[in-house]
Design brief:
TIM Barrel, 318 residues, alpha/beta, eight-stranded parallel beta sheet
Amino acid sequence: MTTTNSTVSSVSEATASDAALRRFLHGLPGVDQVGAEQRAAGLGTRSIKTSAKAFAIDLAIQMVDLTTLEGSDTAGKVRTLAAKAMRPDPTDPTCPATAAVCVYPDMVPIAKKALKGSAVKVAAVATAFPSGRAALDIKLADTADAVEAGADEIDMVIDRGAFLSGRYLEVFEEIVAVKEACQGAHLKVIFETGELQTYDNVRRASWLAMLAGAHFIKTSTGKVQPAATLPVTLVMLEAVRDFREATGQMVGVKPAGGIRHSKDAIKYLVMVNEIAGEDWLDPDWFRFGASTLLNDLLMQRKKLTTGAYSGPDYVTLD
C-alpha cells in the first residue's frame, strides 16, 4: 500500500461516520494471499551470523510477554513467573529481563507486588477474554478493575462477530471506550486472526484498531488455532508501516500463540526489519506473547555461550 495525499485525507475522514469507515476499510488494497505467504516463507529462510543470532536472542528475550492465562493459575505460579521475568537466567546476570508478565485481572496485584522495583511491566487481559462476548459496561469494568489494580498494559479482544458482520463502527467505538478506561495504561487490541478468515480482514482489523487509538495490534489470544503465523504478522506489519506513513504515528505489533522456538522468533525479527523497519526492533514496538518460547531462547543462549546444550533441568517449567 502506497501512502498518498488522498490516503492521508481518507484516514482523517474515515471515522466521520459508519459509512465513511466502511468505505475506507473496504477501499484498502486487497492482500495477495499467495504473494504474502511466499514472501513470509522466503523471509523465514534467511540465515544470520552467530553474532547476529546472539543479538537476536537477547532482543527476543526482551520482547517476551511471559504469559500465564489458565483457569488453574495460582498466586504462587504468578510470583514464580514474575521472578523468572526479572531474572530469566539466575546463573547469568547479563541475561536481559522480559518485557512484561501477562495475567488475568485478578492476578494483577500479585504480579505488581512481585515485580516491584523492576522495569518489567504487568499486562492484563480484559474485556471478557478470550471470547469478547460480554456487554460493553462489563468490558469497561473489567478494564477499569485491572488498571486500578496496577496493570501497565491492557490486552483487549475485539468482538469478532460484530467485525465479521460488518459492524465496524461498533467495534471502533468499543476500542475507543476501552482505551479511555485504560487511562494511562497502554492498549493492545487482539483480533483472534484465526477467526478472521481472510488476510483482507486482518488488514481491515489492523487499520480499524489503529484508527481507534490502539498502542499495539495483536494476533491472537492463544486459545484459538491457528494463532500467530508469519503471513498474518506480515500483513499486520505492513499495516503499521503504512499507518505511520499516513499519520506519523507508530503502533506496535504482537504475535501471540504457537511461537515456541528461537528459530521461529528470529524469523519474526527478520520480518519486522524487512517489512516495518528497524524502528520496530524494540520491545516498545514489538512483542511476543509466549509461555514456552523463553525457555528455548535461554537454552539457545546458553548454547552460544558455552558451545553445548544444557540439560532439561536448566530451565524452569512454567
